[in-house]
Amino acid sequence: MAQSLHYRTLTKEDLGQMHRTFVEAFSNYQVNMKMSREAFEDRMLFKLNINFDMSPGVFSGDKLVGFIFQSIHEYEGVLAAYNGGTGVIPGYLGQGLTTKLYDFISPKLTDTGVKKCVLEVLVNNKHAIKAYQNAGFEKSRTFQCLMIRDGMLDVNAENEFEINEVSDFQIEEFRSIGDINPSMLDQLTQVIYHLPKEIILECRLRQDLLGYIIFQPKNGRITQIAVNPKHRRMGVGSSLLNRAHFLSENKRLSVLNIETKEEGVIQFFESSGFTSDLQQYEMQKSLSHV
C-alpha cells in the first residue's frame, strides 16, 4: 500500500537526503546538475544561504520526494523568497507537488513579511514553466547566459589597467557604479555569504573605483562585473576579464542571467569571445493576497 505524502520544512540534518533527492530529481535535466555532496552543501549553505525554515519538503514515509530550497532577503525593495531549486523525483511527477509545496509554505512566508517569491527557469522547460504558472507565478524578465567554451578569451591586451585583488568590498561603493539589476542570487547583499569562494578584483585610479569583477575561480562563474560609466570603452572591463581569466582554474568563464534588454553588456561579452549558452525566465509570484 502506497504511503501518504506529508509536508514539513527542512532542517540542516536533512542535508544528506536533500543531496540524494536533488541528484535523483535532476538526473535527466538538460543541464548537467550532478554535484558532489561537498559541492551541494557549499551551494546550499553559502551561495544560496538557504533558509531551512522557509524551505518545504514533501515526504513519502521517511523519503524526501520533492522540495523547494529557498533563501530570504530583500529584492527590488521588498522582502522576497528566492527559489534556489525545485525538484520532484520520478514516480511523483504529475501530481501538482510544486503547487502544493508553495501552498504549504506561503502562509509562513507571509507571516514572516515576505512579499513575493522569485525563481528562474529555462525558457524551453515548458513543463516547469506550466507548473510554476499553476502555482501563481508570472514571467517578469528574460535572462541571457553566456560562456567561453574553448578557454580562449578574445580581448585587447593593450592599454591594460592595473587590477588588484581585494578581500572585501563596500556594497554602496560597488552599487554606485553599476546600472543594471542583477538576478536575485547575484545581488551584492547575497554575494557576501559566498565570499570565501569568490575573488574580488578592483580597478582604481588613485582612490576612484573604475570597475570591479566578482567571480568564482574554481568554476569560472562571473557573479558580477561593472565599470564606472565615466570610464567605459577605455579597456577597464577587458582588463578585469583578462585578470579573471588568468586566475580561473579551467579557463571556462561563464556569466549568467544578464537581462536580454542589456544589449551593450551582452555585446561586450560576445566581443570578448563569449557565446550564448541558454536563456532563462525570471518568474515572480506576489504574496500580498495570500
The CATH superfamily of the largest domain turns out to be: Gcn5-related N-acetyltransferase (GNAT)
Integer tally of domains: 2
User: Separation of termini?
Assistant: 35 Å
Average per-residue pLDDT, rounded, comes to 92
Determine the strand fraction and express it as a percent band: 25-35%
State the shape. Answer: elongated
* CATH fold node name of the largest domain: Aminopeptidase
H/E element order: EHHEEEHEHEEHHEEEHEHE
- Count of individual helical segments: 8
Report on this model:
By secondary structure, the chain is an alpha+beta fold. It folds into 2 domains: 5-143 and 281-286, Aminopeptidase (3-Layer(aba) Sandwich); 149-273, 3-Layer(aba) Sandwich (Aminopeptidase). Helices cover 27% and strands 33% of the residues. The protein contains 8 helices and 12 strands. Strands 1-2-3-4-5-12-6-11-10-9-8-7 form a 12-stranded mixed sheet. A hairpin with a 2-residue loop joins strand 3 and strand 4 (78-88). The protein is elongated and about 65 Å long. The model has no long low-confidence stretch (mean pLDDT 92).
